Amino acid sequence: MSEINPLFIPAIRSHSPAKPVLIFVSSRRQTRLTALDLIAYLATEDNPKQWLHQDEREIEHIIATVRDSNLKLTLAFGIGMHHAGLHERDRKTVEELFVNSKIQVLIATSTLAWGVNFPAHLVVVKGTEYFDGKTRRYVDYPITDVLQMMGRAGRPQFDDQGKAVILVHDIKKDFYKKFLYEPFPVESSLLSVLSDHLNAEVAAGTISSKQDAMDYITWTYFFRRLVMNPSWICC
After folding, report:
1. Which of 58, 62, 201, 216 is least crowded, fewest Cβ atoms below 10 Å from its Cβ?
2. What is the rounded CA–CA span in Å between residue 42 and residue 122?
3. Alpha-carbon torsion 81, 85, 87, 88, what sign?
4. Torsion angle of the four alpha carbons 46, 52, 56, 59, in this order, in degrees rounded to the nearest 10
5. Rounded to an integer, what distance in angstroms lies between the CA atom of residue 225 and that of residue 121?
6. What single string gives the DSSP state of each residue in 102-131?
7. Residue 151, SS3?
């Protein structure tokens, strides 16, 4: 993941140099590593606290109430972290600072996408995989999760537009391009319960012969998708 960090810095500079940025990562550890990499980048800039939009004395007073040592460091640069491992009060502090545009960048785990309604002009999805403890391997985010993360950009009540950047490995680039620009077909789930439906129709007297059963199937959406995409049904 660390090799991806330099890639989204140009995205921030190009698409959201002064507006809220929400960066989604796969783990608590990645929130810290990503924040530290951003601080290292800011150290090379003329204005290393360009993402902090609050008086330094005020932010120092707020930082004094924060429990997490890493969060104390990142907040001083206008960068927040948000994950389940933080104390509830620390999370609330970060949420308030970001919603009120006191800090510009928030790095969060993907679970935040389903939680609080945070405004962001730019959303960066840093990788599309996470480590699954049950299978002990990296697996892809569900497409619904990726959509939910992207949906955090450009909320109507906060902004008139939004931008999303998804960082993926080359082998998955074509898939996500197709996913973003071409709608996926809606497939039928009738096959797994087809026998139940046929038995119900037999009991109701609608089906009394093999031909009736075949006619019944041809009237379904399942049959239309079977003709159009037989490989999906067969697999």
Report:
1. 58
2. 18
3. positive
4. -150
5. 39
6. SBSEEEEEGGGGGSS---BSEEEEE-SEEE
7. coil
Q: Does residue 79 sit in helix, strand or coil?
A: strand
Local confidence pLDDT in tens for the 235 residues of the chain:
545 556 778 888 889 988 999 999 988 999 999 999 999 989 988 999 999 999 989 999 999 999 999 999 999 999 999 998 999 999 999 999 999 999 999 999 887 767 667 878 999 999 888 888 888 888 888 888 888 888 888 877 777 889 999 888 888 888 888 877 777 778 888 988 999 999 999 999 999 999 999 999 999 999 998 888 887 766 5
**Distance (Å, whole) CA 19 – CA 193:** 50
Query: What tokens appear for 187 in the block?
Result: 């497939």
- Give the ranges where the chain is alpha helix by DSSP (H): 5-15, 28-42, 56-63, 69-75, 88-99, 143-150, 170-181, 194-204, 210-218, 221-228, 230-234
CA-derived radius of gyration, the chain: 24
Neighbours of 209 (CB within 10 A): 8
Q: How do beta strands 105-109 and 79-82 pair? A: parallel
Termini Cα distance of the chain = 33
